[in-house]
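Retry 2 of 3 after timeout on previous attempt. Resubmitting structure tokens to design endpoint.
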């Protein structure tokens, strides 16, 4: 039997160091992307899928592990985020049963002060918005289509090896603006149209004056 991944809270000499911890279904892209931000007093930790375990029960387990092993405190500016892709949740079961299960799960997460950033269909929507607008957001895109759109902008996209130098400060700010416009009027935690709420995390980081590409 495989052992559950161990989460060890970093020891800090001074607790004025804040933690932004992200628990995500994605194994590659988010961890690479958020590595471009840095600050001497803020640590960003991204815990992605291990052994292809991206189903809700596995994401929930990782979230529980993080909550248990990190002593997060709001007064220190710590935050815990659950990063979800709609395509992952819709693939694991029938839509209605998945949404019922997810509704209760998200509700509990919100009660525990876990913040949630969702994307429809996937995190790659956020990456695309650095380089181009997404036309026809009402269309039911597949993640492979979004990846194709990224490559069509001339960016050499590779999920396991993101071209991080392309995500400049100006492009990050453009992505935030585009994502906020797409999210306007959406009230559900999983947007029905193509949309991403990763901008909420990134806007937080920019407001904290984190170092990012120029």
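Retry 2 succeeded. Sequence:
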């Amino acid at each position: 039997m495989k052992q559950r991944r161990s989460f060890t809270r970093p020891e800090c000499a001074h607790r004025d160091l804040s933690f932004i911890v992200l628990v995500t279904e994605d194994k590659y892209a988010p961890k690479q992307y958020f590595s471009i931000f840095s600050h001497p007093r803020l640590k960003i930790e991204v815990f992605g899928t291990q052994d292809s375990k991206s189903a809700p029960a596995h994401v929930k387990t990782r979230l529980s592990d993080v909550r248990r092993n990190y002593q997060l405190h709001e007064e220190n500016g710590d935050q815990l985020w659950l990063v979800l892709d709609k395509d992952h949740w819709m693939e694991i079961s029938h839509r209605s049963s998945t949404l019922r299960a997810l509704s209760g799960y998200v509700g509990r997460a919100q009660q525990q002060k876990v913040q949630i950033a969702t994307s429809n269909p996937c995190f790659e929507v956020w990456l695309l918005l650095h380089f181009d607008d997404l036309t026809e957001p009402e269309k039911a895109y597949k993640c492979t289509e979004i990846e194709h759109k990224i490559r069509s902008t001339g960016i050499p996209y590779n999920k396991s090896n993101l071209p991080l130098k392309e995500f400049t400060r100006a492009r990050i700010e453009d992505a935030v603006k585009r994502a906020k416009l797409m999210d306007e009027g959406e009230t559900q935690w999983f947007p029905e149209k193509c949309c991403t709420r990763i901008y909420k995390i990134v806007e937080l980081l920019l407001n904290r004056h984190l170092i990012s590409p120029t």
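Attempt log closed. The longest helix spans residues 95-111.
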